[in-house]
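dude i think i finally got it to work??
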Amino acid sequence: VQLVESGGGLVQPGGSLRLSCAASGFAISRYSMRWYRQAPGNERELVATITSVGFSIYAADAVRGRFTISRDNAKNTVYLQMNNLKPEDTAIYYCNKEFLWGQGTQVTVSS
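look at this
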């Protein structure tokens, strides 16, 4: 049972990235899935949740309208599309299901 994130990298302000979270050992269709992020010196914060029925909830006003969480149950994968990225979005992004965490993927927004 694991979560594996990918898709992070270095991007200029205003750019886009799509993060992926591939799940194995369980079916994501049965669970709410979440993306968190942790910037240096900060606590880990919830970014977005997608419920088992596909309802999306964005926890932070700072990302609403720029980030989109989605899921592909057939691929057992959760995504986070991030547009109009800002330097303050720089963080390690983690996928989460209840008490299960991925290893994280680094997103750096810098010119």
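The longest strand covers residues 17-24.
im so relieved honestly
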